[in-house]
Amino acid sequence: MDKQQLFDIDVAVRSWFSTLNVTIPRLIEHMETDTKQNRFDLVTNVDRDIQQNFEQFLQHFYPSHQLLAEEKSNQQIDAYHGHVWVMDPIDGTMNLVKQQTDYCVILAYFVDSEPMLSYIYDYPNGILYKAIKGEGAYANDQPLKPPHTMDIKDAILSFNAQVLNLETVKALFDASFSYRIIGSCGLDSMRVIKGQFGAHVNTNPKPWDIGAQFLFASELGLKMTTLDNEPVDFAKGGPFIISNKGCHQQVLDILNDGDGYQK
Ligand code: NAP
Ligand code: CA
Ligand code: CA
Which Gene3D superfamilies match (predicted)? Predict the structure, then answer.
C-alpha cells in the first residue's frame, strides 16, 4: 500500500472521528446502560451506536474491509489477512457511566497483520491521538516525541491490583515511584506512550483493548510484549505490557518472580 493511500484513509477516518463530537453528547444525553456477563460488565447505547456508525462508514467507503470489534460477533473474521479494523467503541465504559470522563475510542487498521494506522480518541479532553506507519505519532496533529528512558524507581506503574497476587502488588509498589490506574486500557497506555507512566499491564485484554497500541509503541520506541516478553498476537490479545524501555524488563522480572503474578 503506498503512502498516499494511507494518508487518504487517515483523512477519511479523521473526518469520521469529527462526527463523534456531535453524536457522543447526544447519545450521552439519552444514555441507557445494560449489563453483559455480570453486573460490572457494562455496555451502553453509546458503545453500540459508535460501533454501528463506524460499521456503516466502512460499508460505504471501504466495503471490502473487515471489522473486529467488541460489541459484535467476530466469528467470520479472518483477522490475519487483508484490510482489518479493530475497534473498541468505548474503552472505559464504567468510567463513562459512573464518572462521565476517562474513556476513549480505540481504533486500529491492519493490512495483512501489519499495523498501518492507529487512533485513540480521548473525547472528554478533545484529543485525537494517531500513529501512521513510518510517519510517527501525533496528538491533534502535534508530533509526539519518544519518551525519555525511565528506571522503575522513577516510574508510575499502572495495573489492575485486583487480579495480581498480593506479593507481586507489594513488590511493584516497593520498586516503583508510585501507582495509578485510570481504568481505560487505551488511556492508561497513552500515559505510558507520552512518558507520564513507566508501564501499563493488563493480564486479560481482548484485541480491541490493545489494537492501537502496537503502532504507537513501534513509532515511539516503547516496548509492547506479552508478560513472557514475547510478541503479542493482535488478533488474540492476552496478557500484555506496554512499557518505557527503561523499566520493561524490571517490571517483567517482578511479575514473573516466585509463583508468578496471578492471584
Ligand atoms: P473496568 O473499569 O471495568 O475496566 C478497566 C479497563 O479494563 C477498561 O479498559 C476495560 O475495557 C478493560 N476491561 C474490562 N473488563 C476486563 C477484563 N475482564 N479483563 C481485562 N480488561 C478488562 O475495570 P475494573 O472495574 O477495574 O474491573 C472490572 C472487571 O474487569 C473485574 O473483573 C476486573 O478484574 C477485570 N479487569 C481485569 C484486568 C486485568 O488486568 N486482568 C484489567 C481491568 C479489568 P472496557 O471499558 O472496554 O470494558
Ligand atoms: Ca476495552
Ligand atoms: Ca469497550
Answer: 3.40.190.80, Fructose-1,6-Bisphosphatase, subunit A, domain 1
Q: Please report the pLDDT score of residue 43 as a whole number.
A: 87
Position 263 pLDDT exceeds 90: no
181 lines ligand 1 (CB under 6 A): no
Give rounded-to-5 percent helix, strand, coil for the chain: 40, 25, 35
The predicted model scores a pTM of: 0.98
Q: Please name which of 188, 39, 55 lies closest in space to residue 120, comparing C-alpha atoms.
A: 188
263 close to 108: Cβ distance less than 8 angstroms: no
- CB 94 near ligand 1, within 6 Å: yes
Pairwise CA distance, residues 200 & 203, whole Å: 10
The closest ligand to the CA of 261 turns out to be: 1
Strands 178-179 and 223-225: what pairing? Answer: unpaired
Contacts of 164 (CB under 8 A, 6+ apart): 172, 203, 255, 261, 262, 263
Question: Pairing mode, if any, of strands 127-132 and 136-139?
Answer: antiparallel
How do residues 14-28 score in pLDDT, each as one tens digit? 999 999 999 999 999
* Ligand 1 within 6 A of CB of 189: no
Instruction: Tell which residue, 139, 65, 52, 71, has the closest CA to residue 108.
Output: 65
At a CB cut-off of 8 Å and minimum separation 6, what does 81 contact? 112, 113
Running DSSP on this structure, what letter comes out for residue 144?
A: P
How many helices (DSSP H) and strands (DSSP E) are in the chain? Answer: 8, 14
2 alpha carbon to ligand 2 midpoint, in Å?
Answer: 31
